[in-house]
Structure formats: C-alpha cells, structure tokens
From TrEMBL:
It catalyses: L-alanine + NAD(+) + H2O = pyruvate + NH4(+) + NADH + H(+). Gene3D superfamilies: NAD(P)-binding Rossmann-like Domain. This is Alanine dehydrogenase. Belongs to the AlaDH/PNT family.
Length: 372
C-alpha cells in the first residue's frame, strides 16, 4: 500500500502523523511510504531520518494526497486538505466530527473512508489511540492553567502551591477519566488543593485509592459542581463522551459566581467544550476572558510538546496503521471490532451514530459499511 504523511497545517501544530520508526516498520512490511518535506521538523525529525527509514520525501502535500492510498495525519483535515481527499482513499487521523459539521459534510462529499483515532476502542472499554494524547493534555492542563492564573496574563495572581502561611490554589477537575486523573496528579504535585468530580462511584473509589488522600473526590451532581466551581481558582474540564459532543457542565450564568480572574482550562474543546462559554483557541492566542473569567481552550494542547506527543501517539497508532496497510481497511476492520469502531465515514455515508445524533444527520452502522 502507498502510505502518505503530509505536514500538519493547523495553526501551531508541530506534531507529525508518522514517526521515522513507524515509517521503517511500514517499509519492512513491504509498503511504500511518502512523507512531505519538513513534515517532522516540528517534532524533531529531519527529512534524512525518514530517508534512512526507507521513506520517500515529496515536495508538496498535493503529491501526498494524490498518490497515497492511505493518508496518516494527526489533526482533522483542514478545508484545503479535505478538497484533496477522494473515494477509495483511507484517512487515518483524529477527526472529532461531532462539533464540526463543515468537516463532516466535506468528508461525506469526498467519499473517503475516514477512521478516527478517538473512536477506536479496546477490550477494556478504553480508547487506546486517544489515551496517549489525553495523558499529555491532562498533564499539561495544570501547567497552562497555572500560567493563566498569573496576574500578568489577567489571572488572579495565585500560586498553585501557595507558600507557608498562604493557602494553595483550589483546583476542581470535572471528569475522572484519563485526562482528569493525570490533571489531578500534576495539580496535586504542584501543591494545589485538588478535588476531582465524576458520576461513577466505582471510578471515584478507584481515584480515592490511588491518590491516598492527596486528592479529594466528589460526586458530580449539578449542585456539588456549582458549589465547587464557585470556590475554585482553576477549573479543568476533562469530560468525554466517545465520538459525541461534550456536555455543557458549567453555564455562563455560573461564571458570575466564580472568583474574578479564575482560570478555566477546557481540555474537552476538541469535542465542543464542556463550558457554555468555551470556544477553540490556538497556542498563538490561547486565552480569552468572559465576565472576568480567563478561558484557556486550545484545541491541540499536546502540540505544545510535539516531540513527546508524536512519539506517544506513534507508539499507539503503529499497530493499527500496519493492520490497515497489510490487510486493507475492510479486512482489517472486519477482523478487529475495535478498529471497526473507529470508522466514521465511508463512501458518502456517516458510520458513527453519536456524530449523526450530534449533527442531525442519518447514519448507518460500521458493519453495514463493510458491505458497501
């Protein structure tokens, strides 16, 4: 199979969809790998690294999209990239379609077979291709939140760990999944007073056990959430419903109850955000203010640590990428129900029900798509 990797063009996105190690593996399996020149530079990989791995360097993204049977990326294809996709081609990347009707319609119009990292599953009910970036984003969230809290950035001027005689920052993490767990761990490590909220009692018991009292837990009822948000210096949104739009858990009206200069970090922004006032921002211009509350809503947070993120993502995606290339997408998905769960569009049909529900579009099952 001809596998192509273009350079990411989303603003301030430095990750790359294919590492030299992944390229080497694909070549060893008998596939042809083409990489757009300078695609890996932001993550610390030179063109020479890909050439040494057996890949071919091409000059333009147009060449990659025109020649590749499977395009491997990191972020969702931008409008100019979507115009280059075609029926019969496989796109393997993060998509996050639920809050993005324009992208969804373009993918359907192209006829491309789009497999989304974020909806591939595993035997434990997890999302193995989302997990590494959730770990990165979770660990980054308190770091960028602490920066947002600095007075020079418009924040309250509160130090996460306080100092002797001065209380630490109060941090509320909404969601006890992968993002929330890693965010709570780092925030607690910085010395903050951390409470993590979730609606699963078994998950709360697990969190209480692993944190040994360094992090408090609470049941995420509307009332408890409202009370803790009002007291917080920082609120981290870490809620995920696989493939679907994130629920809005904090309303604009609630901002008036918060401390002036408090910080919101919405890690769920890729799925539309879990705060009513959230809108996607970039690393270039990450913060905005609504009613005195600072919002950090960068839609590609892991791109800030591109090398770590690229290596972590490459480790997770490589086996699935090789399966798609070795067997073809239909056989690979037919033999692996977890990979099949990643199928979001095929031949002009939407194949993920949660996206259809979010956007009011008809969908078919991924299993039905195999017969097309």
């Amino acid at each position: 199979m001809k596998i192509g990797c273009p350079k990411e063009i989303k603003p301030q996105e430095f990750r790359v969809g294919l590492t030299p190690h992944a390229a080497r593996e694909a070549v060893a399996h008998g596939h042809e790998v083409m990489v757009e020149t300078q695609a890996g530079v932001g993550a610390g990989f030179a063109d020479a690294d890909y050439v040494a791995a057996g890949a071919r360097i091409v000059d333009t993204a147009e060449e990659v999209f025109a020649q590749a049977e499977m395009v491997v990326k990191v972020k969702e294809p931008q409008a100019v990239e979507r115009a280059r996709l075609r029926a019969g081609q496989v796109l393997f990347t993060y998509l996050h379609l639920a809050p993005d009707p324009a992208q969804t319609h373009d993918l359907l119009a192209s006829g491309v077979t789009a497999i989304a990292y974020e909806t591939v599953t595993d035997d434990r009910g997890g999302l193995p291709l989302l997990a590494p970036m959730s770990e990165v984003a979770g660990r980054l969230a308190p770091q960028v939140g602490a920066w947002t809290l600095q007075k020079a950035n418009g924040g309250r001027g509160v130090l996460m760990g306080g100092v002797p005689g001065v209380l630490p920052a109060r941090v509320v993490v909404i969601g006890g999944g992968v993002v929330g767990t890693h965010a709570a761990r780092v925030a607690a490590g910085m010395g903050a007073d951390v409470t993590i909220l979730d609606r699963s009692l078994p998950r709360l018991r697990y969190l209480d056990d692993i944190f040994h009292g360094t992090v408090k837990t609470g049941y995420a009822s509307a009332g408890t959430t409202a009370e803790l948000v009002a007291e917080a210096d920082m609120v981290i949104g870490a809620v995920l419903i696989p493939g679907a739009a994130a629920p809005k858990l904090v309303t604009r009206a609630q901002l008036s109850t918060m401390k002036p200069g408090a910080a919101i970090v919405d890690v769920a922004i890729d799925q539309g955000g879990c705060f009513e006032t959230s809108r996607a921002t970039t690393h270039q211009d990450p913060i905005y203010e609504v009613d005195g509350i600072l919002h950090y809503c960068v839609a590609n947070m892991p791109g800030a640590v591109a090398r770590t993120s690229t290596l972590a993502l490459g480790n997770a995606t490589m086996p699935f990428m090789l399966a798609l290339a070795d067997k073809g997408w239909k056989r690979a998905c037919a033999e692996d129900r977890h990979l099949l769960a990643g199928l979001n569009t095929h031949a002009g049909k939407l194949t993920y029900a949660a996206v259809g529900a979010a956007l009011g579009l008809p969908s078919i099952s991924a299993t039905e798509a195999l017969a097309i």
